Amino acid sequence: MGRTAHKAEEQEARLTMDAVTSVPVPVNEPVRTYAPGSAERESLQRRIAELEADKHELTQTIGGRRRLAGGEPFDVVQPHDHGHVLGVSAQATREDVGDAVAAAKSAAREWSELPFDERAAVFLRAADLMAGPYRDTLNAATMLGQSKSVQQAEIDSACELIDFLRFNVHYARRILAEQPNSVPGAWNRMEYRPLDGFVVAITPFNFTAIAGNLPSAPALMGNTVVWKPTPTQQLAAHYTMQVFEEAGLPPGVINLVTGDGHAVSEVALADRGFGGLHFTGSTTTFKMLWRRIADNLDTYASYPRIVGETGGKDFIVAHPSANQDKLVTAIVRGAFEYQGQKCSAVSRAYLPRSLWENGLREQLADVTRTVKYGDITDFSLFGGAVINARAFAKHRDLLSSVDSDPAVNVLVGGGCDDQIGYFVEPTVLVSENPAHTLFSTEYFGPIVAVHVYEDGDYERILETVDSSAEYALTGAVFADDRRAIQQAHRVLRYTAGNFYVNDKPTGSIVGQQPFGGSRGSGTNDKAGSMFNLLRWVSPRAVKETFDAPTDITYPHMG
Ligand SMILES: NC(=O)c1ccc[n+]([C@@H]2O[C@H](COP(=O)([O-])OP(=O)(O)OC[C@H]3O[C@@H](n4cnc5c(N)ncnc54)[C@H](O)[C@@H]3O)[C@@H](O)[C@H]2O)c1
Ligand SMILES: N[C@@H](CCC=O)C(=O)O
Predict the structure, then answer these.
(1) In what residue span(s) does the Aldehyde dehydrogenase domain sit (predicted)?
(2) For residue 274, how far is its CA from the centre of ligand 1 (angstroms)?
(3) 373: domain CATH number?
(4) How confident is the model at residue 20 (pLDDT cuts 50, 70, 90)?
């Protein structure tokens, strides 16, 4: 048999396999508790000690080869103990990024021609490695490098990342199964090709799961990727890449480059073969990258896909009928877990005067005072430090400005200290002015602004919540009165892409609350869902006619 005939047969077999197999039905990875005395706690503590004792060389992976970037070196430290260096990495140069782009291009054809099941198996295997032998490593790296408590690491670098990988395979299979109608004599098919170009994934510091999902989701759909994690998440990203490789990801499919990303936007976003951006991070960075892409529009072979999940000014609004205990728990967990550094974190709360003056103020202050931050290797603590010196300085400046602001009262907190780690106290600020910048600016730290409204002004305050900030990511209403809940649904319909009723607006779960927001919060392509995966395919409609006409006349022509 000739080589061409053999190739055609092989291709036919691939199409058939894509059409008939099924994939494992995903279930959410159970969250481990790490309770005192448990074996899982001991095992994790051992791994933390090992990672702390090591000084990692945090390399790039380009075309399957590890190498330190050619630019300026930088240290990766523990935010809660910034004198403790976990690893050394370096800024990617233009040459490094050029090599990563070349590696992505050269791996593209073979990877896209691999049957879907073979690609899916790589990521399902990665999920199992993360759930098993790599769980402690990824959790320890996330705790040490990003200053997460054990609970916050477990729901991120274990459960959410594993869920992304398993659920994406399930959703991708559903996309492939979505086929057009055929009529007698013709067969219509939809082929879900990857994009006609490589994808750039640029990822934030705050979620190891997001950092792993952004390159792997397009790769699952057959794309090759240049992935740039952020320096402060480099340790966990390093191990995530290691898992992908151990799971059998071929060289060049995901190419990790290190550093602040300037060379990535200069080289990869200016390449003719750039096919799409998968971004999560601040609104400012996303807008800057979008503008750069727009400036290069005439360079590209295709219109690039742009997916970005960005900042938030997430809220809780409570009706006078709200349950006070549940409300306080939601504000404190929502605002102060992971030091307020979730894009979904509560950073503004609108509370009715009747509750505020009948115990809510004192209860909120008392519970907030119990929140302790420190070295996250102490499992009794609630949280750690903010991510770096820049974040610390932003919070320090804000706290010192509110000290002398007559429009703001500090209910609790207000202190900060960066001698050992970048610590900012859990802080509740109260202002009578709902138009104060505290209610519109994303600070991304453990600070929540409270506005107390008159009970009769509920509808008006809902309108204020809607119009105060440029963002529309997450939000929650607390009420027992169903009419109040319905009013909130109506007025706040576009104020949050993830809306919660009587629950905190953080902690979405893959497969349960697909995540993302609109307005200044992003393109709302819902990470970990079919909506996101659809952005990484370029469908081709194929019609095959079995017995094509041989006569150009139509019946009306007689
Ligand atoms: N909506 C969501 O799903 C979501 C999830 C997590 C975080 N976030 C948002 O992310 C932000 C916090 O993350 P961050 O501090 O890492 O954000 P960031 O915007 O500072 O950085 C994000 C990424 O962009 C890179 N970057 C910055 N400048 C660049 C440039 N010129 N060229 C190329 N890359 C560049 C960074 O190195 C990093 O990898 C917050 O605003 C938060 O709300 C949003
Ligand atoms: N899934 C997370 C997303 C956080 C973003 O930073 C949450 O819902 O809290």
Answers:
(1) 72-529
(2) 20
(3) 3.40.309.10
(4) low
